[in-house]
């Protein structure tokens, strides 16, 4: 499969009164045509900053791309002028935001908001754009589109609004769709419908999706590949089966073990101790080391490189170094690994 | 569980907003349930189903439209003397959803935690007051140096710990936790849930745990109530509810929870709930009925028979 988007050695800092916050510290990944890549991590891990950098939505005043490239269709997006970027944003790459209550303009009818990118990017006439808008509303499953198109956002429920936001994002058949926690603000029943809808649309128009979430259940549902972020870096990346059934990084182990399972009753939940690192003063070694019960001396001194586990699976932990001692992962992870060896 | 002492009895509770206006909302429309001493009752449902309103009405943040709430046999609502109210307020405490909005940014942590201690005169001297604050901070996994700081200096998980310490300060018997972990990161959620369970064991607390994250609710609760549009539609022990859901809404809700397991997700079927599928006739009596011991479902006589059959097989 061909790569549609490549992020290479991206470094982003924010200049604040307290000093320089190194939000992204060397992120590398590629997005293949037609796939869904999920980025998981807790708040402050840099998942939203990475995608905002791709869309060039970071605040221009205090953010800075210190190094790295974002290659889309062979072009480096970081080098484009604002005007060139405007031609790509909303057309080739579009975005769905977390909160459907605030990402729509309350003073414009939803019809007008869907037609906006069509008229701007595709030079459609008003009549053609209306026709296409109706078609999009039908596509995302909004009943009676002829009436709904004239209504304002407040006349829609949360789930319906998120469908409208998806319709806007899909208006120009984007090559890349970035979904930043698109279902976090929704109820589980509505979430299930929206996820179903996104998968269905992906099959129809062959878009590549970057899906940001902190819900591992959602990841298991939508993703082809998963990248786990921590402290401004990707610490593990692989196919969804590799990350869920054969995780290698202790942070991934912690995430997986701290979720209660529906079929077993655990005495106590595994909790990752401590709090996320302060990226104002990023640690010298592995950012996860202070919370990591498997940490070794070298974790505090030197950042681990990406170790290769398979052609598609990489993890940044010194535990994968040939000289590292063998450790026993948490019980929940061992159970999953057993399943992984059976699957092969 | 049934032989245990009832701590809280809720009888036909109703909470309407904007009564008599065109936009009247029946947020809670006649619900009844009991909470036993020492248990955790989970309350789940989608947004707008009335689960938070239920919690807030129980603790008297809203005056109930109709129905009764009995705490240890005493009616909570209705006219009360200042003294009675104070006693009641001391026995029931609340932990709120948003740890960023529920702490006054202009108060020091020590004053936030000690507010209840001051109101109820639980400390005789300033030293005793601060000793209690230090002890509470240590109980919730913070340390005494934190007492002199302000809320903005803490992370979300730490703030929620402060909220828990504040609730514990007046030594309550019953705590209503309204989505206490929804605003927290995954790795922090487990910390707070473990803390709540530990405190329950040590202090014999009773919880009403309101949430929409069903896997966490199942983990922490002894019994779970499912709400839909202001009504309780199913109430059962946690294991029973998950292994043997009867009401179609519960089934649909359970089928919608994403599980962190790609294999299961690939093969799962989801059901949608259609409220009109019940086809209740006009004067059919629909109410909470016991299908199996401890397992209640909101249904008609006809459905009761069907559910009884279903739960046997």
Describe the structure.
- Chain A: It is found in: Cell membrane.
- Chain A: InterPro entries: AAA+_ATPase, ABC_Ni/Peptide_Import, ABC_transporter-like_ATP-bd, ABC_transporter-like_CS, Oligopep_ABC_C, P-loop_NTPase.
- Chain A: It is a peripheral membrane protein.
- Chain A: Keywords: ATP-binding, Cell membrane, Membrane, Nucleotide-binding, Transport.
- Chain A: It comes from Mesobacillus zeae.
- Chain B: This is ATP-binding cassette domain-containing protein.
- The complex is a heterodimer of chains A (344) and B (313).
- Chain A has 344 residues and is an alpha/beta fold.
- Chain A has 2 domains: 3-223, Rossmann fold; 228-343, 3-Layer(aba) Sandwich (Rossmann fold).
- Chain A is 34% helix and 22% strand.
- Chain A has 12 helices and 12 strands.
- In chain A, the strands form 2 sheets. Chain A has an 8-stranded mixed β-sheet with strand order 6-7-8-3-9-10-12-11, with helices on both faces. Chain A has a 4-stranded antiparallel β-sheet with strand order 2-1-4-5, covered by helices on one side.
- In chain A, a hairpin with a 2-residue loop joins strand 9 and strand 10 (233-239).
- In chain A, helix 3 (110-122) crosses helix 4 (126-139) and helix 6 (158-170) packs parallel to helix 7.
- The longest helix of chain A has 18 residues, at 188-205.
- The model of chain A has no long low-confidence stretch (mean pLDDT 91).
- Chain B has an 8-stranded mixed β-sheet, with helices on both faces.
- Chain B has 11 helices and 12 strands.
- Chain B folds into 2 domains: 6-229, P-loop containing nucleotide triphosphate hydrolases (Rossmann fold, 3-Layer(aba) Sandwich); 239-313, no CATH class.
- Chain B is an alpha/beta fold and 313 residues long.
- In chain B, helix 4 (126-139) crosses helix 5.
- Chain B is globular and about 65 Å long.
